Each structure stands twice: as structure tokens, then as C-alpha cells.
Amino acid sequence: MKMILVTGATGQIGSELVPALRDNYGLESVIAAGHRRAPPSSLGSGEYITVDVTKYDQIENAIRDYGITHIFHLASLLSGETEEHPEVAWDVNFNGTHNILEAARKNGVEQIVYPSSIAAFGPETPRDKTPLATIQRPKYLYGISKVTGELLGYWYHDKYGLDVRGVRFPGIISWKEELKLLPDGLPPGTTDYAVLIYYAALREGKYTSYLRSNTALPMMYIPDAIKALIDLSEADGSRLIHRTDFNVNAMSFTPEELATSIRLRIPAFKMHYQVVPKKQAIADSWPKSLDDYEAREEWGWKPGFDIDSMTDDMLRNLGKKLGVVR
Q1: Which domain holds residue 83?
Q2: Which residue is catalytic, options 140, 142, 198, 207?
Q3: pLDDT of 37 higher than 80
């Protein structure tokens, strides 16, 4: 029987991955771990523990106490937070990932799934249909941490036979978690405008983007992100040529294209632009679209949402959540 530990369980992806895993494997088989003392209501019922991934002993104790066989390691500072707090990011994104891999190796964990990011690329990477194997020289610490995690995963697999798997996620869009803004009034992630815009459309009927209108970036609706993680975990390992660096593509769009999709449902919606240079610089160093040939060939990856089906679902669910009738 699988016993699964999910680190970073209170974050955007973790808060939706945990319920999905519990639906698949049973309530008692999934241990949610986060840095908060109490779990958010989105996690529902089930075991929740506080784990600081920068503390090796806390990880090892969790693995031993619950007989953990599989880990989904999601704990990470995002791009904006990482640039603002590099010392904390070093502890969480670098040391935390190493602690997870080392504790897994020493305690018989069978598999680790680790999400990387398009931030692992850089300005010298081809930006259109970015391939899996290409130059990776990110300019920002978040991306450097993701490249490090990818390479560590390969090393632990090659040296110790640890089954480490991972995807490079584009920007993730979800209606369930309302993003908390940083002290500068900006969200923690560079692609988070694509979440905030839906809230603003329903609440105020307008949104001011911190990215240029023509800034194309890869994006993914969170049901597809959850599907990608679970599908990769369940894939036949004998078919995997690659390990921790699978590109997964769903859609690419600009802020103005997303605004157009919203206007088809909310005609009065207004879009404004006030570019924030530090956010724009990060976005300009990332791909515009991804080539995910290897994921499709090696484990059958296929997304289910495009921009318009995502907008329909986002507005329907957010409208219910916010009590807004369109």
C-alpha cells in the first residue's frame, strides 16, 4: 500500500493535489505536510502535520512515523518571494530539496515527484516551443533552484537508483486559493496575474496588469497540473528515458488574449496596463511556449483545458465562491 507525503501541502498546487490523492488512494494513505500550524479548510479531513523542510530531522521523522513510500515535494518559495528573500529561498528551495532526497534515500522511500518550472530556462533558451533538452542559464534564483532540483534528481537516480520524477510546470491557474499579495502589492509569482484577473473581472469589472499586453507565457489550469503529477507518478518507470525535466504544455497566451477570453463572457470588462519592470524582466526570461513531445511519448501526457474552457470553468466556480451573479 502506498503511503504518500505531500510537502508544501497548503500551497496552490498542494491544496488541490492532496484531496485528489486521497480520492485515488484513500484518506489514510496521504499525509499532508506544511509549514502552517493548522491546515486550510481546502485540505478537508485527513492527517496534517507541520514539517519544516529545512530541518532534516523533521522530514526523516515524518517518513519513519508514517511509513512513507512516496513523496510529492512541493515546498518552495515562488519567483517573486525568492528574489525578495534569497536567504530564505536558499534554505527552502535548495537545502529543503536536498533534505527530502537524502531522507528518502536513507529511509527506503520508493519514489519522489518534484515539480520544476519554466523558470529553469533563461534568456538564452529558445523561447518558442522550448525543447526539453536546451541551454538552461536562468537569471533569477528561483530558476536556479529549479535547475538544481532537476540535476539533483538525476544524480540521486543515477547514483542510488532513487526513483525521482518531475515536470516543468508553466504558470498555474486556480480558483480555489485567493493569492496573498506581498508588501509591495504584487503577488508572489510572476504568472499570478492570470489568477488575479478573474477575481478582478468578477469583483470590479477591470484589472491592471503588471506585464505588457503582448507578454506570451505558457499556462496551465490546475486540474491539468494535478493530472500531470499523478499520471507521471503512476507511469511505467521502464518507459521513462527522462526523469525530472519533462516539459508539460497546455496553452500559451498574453494578458490581452486572456482579457479577450474574459470579455466574451463579461463584455464590459476593462483591461489596463502598468508594467512593473522586475516582474516583466522575469517574464521576458521565460519561454513563450513549450515542446512537450517527451512527456506525450513516454507517459501519455495530454491536457484537457484550453484558454476558453478554462475561462468558463474559472468564472463559473469563482462566481459561486464570491457570490457574484453574472
Answers
A1: 4-171+220-247
A2: 142
A3: no
